[in-house]
Automatic annotation (TrEMBL):
InterPro entries: AB_hydrolase_1 (IPR000073), AB_hydrolase_fold (IPR029058), AB_hydrolase_sf (IPR050266). This is Pimeloyl-ACP methyl ester carboxylesterase. GO terms for cellular component: membrane. GO terms for molecular function: hydrolase activity. It comes from Pseudomonas abietaniphila. Keywords: Hydrolase. Residues 21-244 form the AB hydrolase-1 domain.
Amino acid sequence: MPYFDHEGCSLHYETYGHGSPVLLVHGLGSSAQDWEYQIPALAAHYQVIVVDVRGHGRSDKPRERYSIPGFSADIEALLEHLQPGPVHLVGLSMGGMIGFQLAVDQPQLLKSLTIVNSAPEVKIKRFDDFKQFAKRWLLARVFSMETIGKGLGKNLFPKPEQADLRNKIARRWAQNDKRAYLASFNAIVGWGVQEKLARIVCPALIVTADHDYTPVALKQAYTRLIANAELIVIEDSRHATPLDQPEAFNRVLLRFLGDH
């Protein structure tokens, strides 16, 4: 399993296939494992790069303050290490935030940008926002990661036929380091680059589930702020679209990558 070091942190990554490079960046509390349904489909046509973000998976979990710009700097260091040239970056949730950060800071590194169930800012603007984030933070402080994983699985995959996905997410979530998870959660709250979206010059695909945590209207609003962006809604899906609707998601992603 390949690793590289950036600022004293050992980061795990893997590569598959050959061709134009596609970099997959996971979300909060996740890891490269959660791209399992995308890697084979993409590797038949592209060089696929997956990475465990600092504090996640098989990467180090340093005792320090995390930030979205810091995560983005790790990705920049990975690309400098691998030298693949400009990449198609695909980011889910927190991974989408990392993608936005990289796209506005280092646009020359991206051939295209795909954002999945994410947003260019997470600002607490209303009391309801504060209640929502406070509730999530307190739950993560009080309950074990295993308990949180079971609850998350029921929320993400509520259908009877999704029992395997529920069990899978619960097992994987239990492997999270709680301290690193909370540090990553704190990195998200208050972050934002929405005022810089005009800097994104590469083609962009915004993918949203019809039942994501945030409404489709939010994605429609920020899609209009990006010069060369399109929005696609995946039906009958929740926040973990690459897992709950892999065929529909892969079809949309492969079409977009093929066009660019």
